[in-house]
Design a protein that fits this description.
There is one protein chain. By secondary structure, this protein is an alpha+beta fold. The protein has helices spanning 15-25, 44-48, 118-140, 173-183, 190-194, 210-213, and strands spanning 2-7, 29-33, 53-57, 65-69, 74-77, 90-97, 100-108, 144-149, 187-189, 203-204, 216-217, 220-225, 232-237, 253-257. It contains 6 helices and 14 strands. Helix 3 (118-140) packs parallel to helix 4.
Length: 258
């Protein structure tokens, strides 16, 4: 089964690129972040025409997450956490792989910049809330897959110039500790366990020729509970969509599990 995560930075603005990518990559499930549209304006029919059902938690102009799937996803929920700002940042569902029921959790973590504003405090509170609720989810089902745009640079290797991000909301130590706290609940960063010393990125800013210079960062992740690690077949960061016309500033991460 191929499960792909991609921050598309507006599903309607990138719909041609997304559909072309789906035809090439053939995912079973595509987890989208930052769809930037309300539920009623989501392009359901475009996905339905190529065999995919859409489960959407949208918001006008900002944020938003969706699960696009050609297999059955049950128990779709949009209330994993209580968000004080009522932003659309988490959607969950359940899939069956052989005899295992796996909880899918698709997230778009707040950016948090600038760090001397309420945006940073919101990010910290959001992450604390999320971690608390993941603990609760693990007590119900120990087989979890968390994926999406975490807006966290886990380690120095995960950004082109770590010194520039030590005091950024994506690279501050207390934020990176939240990522480790999540891992310590019983998860592994799938990309890093398969690529211990490889330096690849999932995001390149639109500014200052970041893509051309490879000034990127790895902030999009797949976390898999430890009891599912034997199910991993492969994981790949596919840079090709970032090179297209009118691209998202993120690129897809492709996980294959058995």
């Amino acid at each position: 089964m191929k499960i792909i995560s991609w921050n598309v930075n507006s599903v309607r603005a990138r719909i041609t690129n997304i559909l072309n990518y789906i035809k090439q990559a053939k995912p079973d499930i595509l987890l989208l972040q930052e769809i930037k549209t309300q539920d009623e304006n989501f392009p359901y029919e475009e996905f339905k025409k190529i065999g995919y059902e859409s489960h959407v938690y949208g918001q006008k102009s900002y944020n938003g997450v969706a699960i696009i799937s050609k297999i059955e996803v049950k128990n779709i929920k949009k209330n994993l956490i209580s968000d004080d700002l009522k932003q659309s940042r988490v959607i969950t569902g359940e899939i069956q792989i052989k005899r295992s029921k796996i909880n899918l959790i698709n997230i778009y973590v707040p950016n948090g910049n600038p760090i001397d504003t309420e945006k940073y405090e919101y990010k910290k509170k959001w992450l604390n809330n999320f971690i608390l609720n993941i603990k609760k989810e693990l007590s119900k089902n120990s087989k979890l897959l968390i994926a999406g745009d975490f807006n966290i640079i886990p380690e120095e290797i995960d950004v082109y110039d770590f010194k520039r991000y030590e005091n950024d909301a994506l690279g501050k130590l207390e934020i990176r500790k939240k990522f480790r706290e999540l891992l310590n609940l019983g998860f592994k960063d799938v990309y890093r366990i398969k690529n211990r010393n490889k330096q690849e990125y999932t995001f390149w800013d639109y500014f200052a020729g970041s893509w051309q210079k490879n000034y990127g960062m790895r902030i999009d992740h797949f976390l898999l509970s430890n009891n599912l690690l034997d199910n991993i077949v492969s994981i790949n960061i596919n840079k090709n969509p970032r090179s297209k016309t009118k691209p998202s500033d993120h690129t897809p991460i492709e996980l294959e599990i058995s």
